[in-house]
Design brief:
593 residues, alpha/beta, TIM Barrel, 20 strands, globular, metal-binding, dihydropyrimidinase, Metal-dep_hydrolase_composite, Metallo-dep_Hydrolases_sf
């Protein structure tokens, strides 16, 4: 592939010559490589020169001091990943965003020539012209001037950038905080072809206002577009009023209810009912983490009593039947209120079948599998090495072989509608908090960078779905559900210029050594496949090309999501039909005798 800008031509190889992608922003050092990262600043006397005999005592003390300093820095990276890093990014010359770092991201005019343009319901060979962050034209043989960057996409797919509906960046959880923040996590996403994500705001002591204020600060370093869901962890009049503020003033149109994590985030059925009713009145989508938290708590205690304290206890304590039960319960309560329901991270056949039955009956239920559940099984959780096994701990758990294939089939037939990641990054040091008790292992796996590649290889390359279906489940359906289509999720005139170029003949391999997350592990380690995203354009800027990222903190934008998406259409008529069917109240004669 070639890019042309004015008189300059730059070769774009279809497959990078090195297995290690180049990163042109040194935005952090991996904790496990911290000493190597700091060594250049230590000077030769510390980095490589052997001390004279008479100075060995002093050198020894310096070495101890240095080790302590490194340890403190190591801990600061682990425990404070959200600390401000703007200065070091921009001082290093991060190549994206004039306002953020004074570095130009290149021409705001881009022409993508000769690719197969794929939308959710149509594909055609055409050119795509981008100017000032918007798609201006989609048609064959577009002519442009010399001030336009030209990308040759012949033989490749040109598709909307991915939208990840389910992430947890800089989230405080289980005595720790997720390692990827709103810069490192988004940078990883862009390298993998995702150009927008929707993160979950966790209230502060139950307050939605305090929660959103906290997350607005966390997101100030964003390098791509993002939106917010809001979790509900308690119920009172203040929460009810604050939900109105979230919808009417903050651009949030979805609220999540945890049916698990007893004693922390879990809500009961009474609260869930109140929340469903409020969501319906606001035109906001109710979302559920569906596991029976009371039964999980009992299962955890049972495992501890049996002496099962390792990561396998996590899987054994929360079997698929508990996910199925909670999914069924949430679906029936949503039907009782007559409001749409979104079930996050569907991980089992049990939950999927409940969603299938509800949709077959006409109920508006959305099922979201995540990429880990689609392509992995639970075999690694039984690994004798704790670090390896703990890497795979998430909730609901990754299930036994067979559930993954069933979820793939449900996705290909429309029973499940879109794919998320539940990207929730805890490294091996954080996971070791539960080395003697699986209940203390922070729950979460990666996926924000790997989703687009793995879904293409698993679903399209295998022949299960078409390229248009791929666009639908990775981008368009998310945009429709959260009411931002066609601004997002489409390559149409007027849409945001969030675009990827995918080479179906190129290959990829996943490794913690080359990924862009701050994690020191990767649950997809060693997976290979076909279909490589060679270019990512976000907001009209080329941010990923030739294995290089060009991003800057502060260049991302918040996307406000209005209420009353297509899922609410006709709900009022259904309510009217229900009322007319009641044949009540019955008028009765009152005897005076």
């Amino acid at each position: 592939m070639r890019t042309h800008t004015r008189a300059r031509t730059v070769e774009m190889p279809s497959v990078p010559s090195s297995p290690n992608s180049r990163i042109i922003y040194p935005f952090f050092c991996h904790a496990r490589k911290l000493h190597a990262c700091l060594a250049p600043s230590l000077g030769e006397s510390h980095a490589g020169r052997r001390p004279k005999p008479e100075n060995r005592s002093m050198a020894s003390r310096r070495a101890v001091n240095l080790s302590l300093t490194l340890l403190l820095l190591h801990l600061s990276i682990l425990l404070s990943p959200s600390a401000s890093e703007f200065g070091q990014f921009c001082d290093a010359g991060v190549g994206y965003g004039e306002s953020a770092c004074g570095v130009s991201g290149g021409s705001s005019k881009i022409l993508i020539k000769g690719g197969t343009v794929v939308n959710a319901h149509h594909q055609e060979v055409a050119d795509v012209y981008v100017e000032d962050g918007k798609i201006v034209a989609v048609k064959p043989n577009i002519k442009v001037g010399d001030d336009v960057t030209v990308l040759d996409a012949t033989g490749k797919y040109v598709m909307p950038g991915g939208i990840d509906p389910h992430t947890h960046l800089a989230m405080d959880f289980m005595a720790s905080q997720t390692l990827d923040d709103f810069f490192s996590g988004q940078a990883a996403a862009l390298a993998g072809g995702t150009t927008m994500h929707i993160d979950f705001v966790i209230p502060v002591k139950g307050s939605l206002i305090a929660g959103i204020e906290s997350y607005e600060k966390k997101a100030s370093k964003s390098c791509m577009d993002y939106g917010f869901h809001m979790a509900i962890t308690k119920w009172d009049d203040d929460v009810s009023r604050e939900m109105e503020v979230m919808v009417n003033e903050k651009g949030i149109n979805s609220f999540k209810f945890f049916m698990a994590y007893k004693g922390a985030l879990m809500i009961n059925d009474e609260l869930l009912l109140q929340g469903l009713k409020k969501c319906k009145s606001l035109g906001a989508l109710a979302m559920v983490h569906a596991e029976n938290g009371d039964a999980v708590f009992e299962g955890q205690n049972r495992m501890i009593e049996l002496g099962i304290t390792g990561p396998e206890g996590h899987v054994l304590s929360r079997p698929a039947v508990l996910e199925g039960e909670a999914t069924a319960r949430a679906i029936r309560l949503a039907a009782f209120v007559n409001t749409p329901l979104y079930v996050v991270h569907v991980m089992s056949i049990d939950a999927m079948e409940e969603i299938a039955k509800a949709r077959q009956s006409g109920q508006r239920v959305i099922g979201e599998p995540v990429v880990s559940g689609l392509v992995l099984d639970d075999s690694k959780i039984w690994d004798p090495d704790f670090t390896t096994a703990a890497t795979y701990v998430m909730s609901p758990p990754i299930r036994a072989a067979g559930h993954d294939k069933a979820l793939q089939a449900a996705l290909s037939t429309g029973v499940l509608q879109l794919v998320g990641t539940d990207h929730c990054a805890f490294n091996s040091t954080q996971k070791a908090l539960g080395i003697d008790d699986f209940r203390k292992i922070p729950n979460g796996v990666n996926g924000i960078e790997e989703r687009m590649h793995l879904v293409w290889d698993t679903m399209v390359e295998s022949g299960k779905i078409s390229a248009s279906d791929y666009v639908r489940i990775t981008s368009t359906e998310c945009a429709r559900i959260f009411n931002i289509y066609p601004r997002k999720g489409a390559i149409l005139v007027g849409s945001d210029a969030d675009i990827i170029i995918l080479n179906p003949n190129s290959s990829f391999e996943i490794s913690a050594k080359t990924h862009h997350s701050r994690l020191d592990t990767n649950v997809f380690e060693g997976k290979k496949g076909k279909g490589k995203i060679e270019v990512t354009i976000a907001g009209g800027r080329i941010v990923w090309i030739n294995g290089e990222l060009k991003v800057a903190p502060g260049s991302g934008k918040y996307v406000s999501m209005p209420p009353f998406s297509y899922l609410f259409q006709g709900m009022d008529k259904a309510d009217a039909a229900y009322l007319s069917s009641l044949r009540a109240p019955v008028k009765r004669q009152i005897s005076t005798e």
